[in-house]
Fold:
Amino acid sequence: MPRYIDLSHKTKEVQLAAHTIGLDNKRPYQRHGKFFYRPYRNYFTTHGKGVYFSVWQGLCDKGYAKCRNGYNPGNIIFWLTRAGLDWLGQELGITIYDEED
Structure:
């Protein structure tokens, strides 16, 4: 099994969502031929401008993410909803648990 999931051919939405839950840094585990992942985080902070912000706004519009103001002026914190975790899991062919379960 590869050390990490190859995200290079995935959309920017999938890449950012995977990074948000640490999937670009930690590999899923395999059991009975299926892949599972338990996130150790679920947040992404970005400035209220630029390409990352627009991608995250699109994820929020689809119901896959939510946001709130960050601790520093102009920063926004995004996180994946349960629907977003399910969507990402379908895109990558893995089961993603909620980081709080």
Summary: The beta strands are 29-31, 34-37, 44-47, 65-69, 75-80, 95-96. The helical segments are 12-20, 51-61, 82-92. The domain at 12-96 is CATH 1.10.10 (Arc Repressor Mutant, subunit A).
